């Protein structure tokens, strides 16, 4: 099988350039979400004077719900659109996010930015991991997923550290949030350059296709029942993922809010 004059092969070594580009793309994906980890809860309490915990957590709720439903829809969307198109769309949706975080005139703008961020993350993170899996084939799916998650979450942590440092030197806004412009520009540029993996999917289906489990129609209801109840291993993984994400969301909102104020660390006016 050939794509645009090039032979299509499955494997990490055979597709190392495209795989590496997708790893860098997911660094940008993780970096964009890392923008919020340190400063946004403090922006809510110190810049906009929010006193209710629910109000401060509203941006996390908006992000979480939007990303969850986007993840759910991503699978169905890949049957209608190519992965690269969805990846580029996700980055285009994310373009306003750093500017909204840096210059939002009210907390409602922050919440709206997190709806866009949820759409961005649901599409870009899902597509990067799917495209990596497409490239390496069935023998290296675990490795591809691991490298994807390692790149993304390392970027989340490093960016959170960097924004915290910038906040102590330059204040909560706009400098820490504007580094997100670098992630958006780089992520979108690389998404436009990377090749789609439709030919790799077709090659794998031609050689490694397997029928669905007996008695399952492959629909959403069947998948939900299997992963949430019938399959013991998948049920455990689903429950662990739920608890992990719940803990992550709570620490995201609680820890920055409990930290010393950064407002006093802003450079004094001349």
In short:
The protein is mostly helical and 270 residues long. 75% of the residues lie in helices and 1% in strands.
Question: What do you see in this structure?
Answer:
- By secondary structure, the chain is mostly helical.
- It has two domains: 10-201, Growth Hormone, Chain: A; 213-261.
- It has twelve helices and two strands, in the order E-E-H-H-H-H-H-H-H-H-H-H-H-H.
- The protein has a two-stranded antiparallel ribbon.
- Helix 1 (16-34) runs antiparallel to helix 6 (107-136), helix 2 runs parallel beside helix 7 and helix 6 runs antiparallel to helix 7 (141-170).
- The longest helix has 30 residues, at 107-136.
- The termini are far apart.
- Residues 262-270 have low confidence and may be disordered.
List keywords for this structure.
270 residues, mainly alpha, Growth Hormone, Chain: A, 2 domains, two-stranded antiparallel sheet, 75% helix, globular
């Amino acid at each position: 099988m050939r794509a645009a004059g090039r032979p299509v092969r499955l494997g990490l070594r055979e597709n190392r350039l495209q795989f590496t580009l997708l790893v860098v793309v997911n660094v940008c994906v993780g970096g964009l979400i890392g923008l919020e980890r340190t400063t946004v809860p403090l922006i809510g309490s110190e810049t906009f004077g929010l006193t209710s915990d629910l109000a401060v957590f509203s941006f996390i709720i908006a992000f979480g719900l939007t990303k969850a439903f986007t993840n759910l829809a991503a699978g169905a969307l890949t049957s209608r659109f190519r992965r690269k198109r969805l990846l580029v769309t996700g980055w285009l949706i994310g373009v306003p996010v750093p500017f909204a975080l840096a210059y939002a005139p009210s907390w409602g703008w922050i919440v709206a930015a997190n709806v866009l961020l949820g759409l961005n993350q649901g599409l870009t993170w899902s597509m990067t991991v799917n495209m990596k899996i497409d490239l390496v084939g069935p023998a290296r799916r675990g490795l591809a997923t691991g490298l994807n998650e390692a790149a993304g979450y390392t970027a989340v942590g490093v960016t959170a550290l960097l924004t915290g440092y910038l906040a102590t030197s330059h204040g909560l806004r706009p400098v820490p949030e504007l580094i997100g412009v670098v992630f958006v520009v780089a992520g979108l540029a690389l998404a436009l350059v990377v090749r789609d993996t439709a030919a790799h999917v077709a090659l794998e289906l031609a050689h490694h296709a397997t029928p669905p489990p007996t008695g399952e129609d492959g629909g959403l209801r069947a998948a939900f029942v299997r992963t949430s109840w019938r399959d013991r291993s998948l049920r455990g993984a689903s429950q662990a993922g739920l608890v992990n994400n719940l803990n992550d969301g709570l620490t995201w909102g609680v820890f920055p809010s409990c930290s010393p104020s950064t407002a006093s660390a802003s450079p004094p006016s001349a």
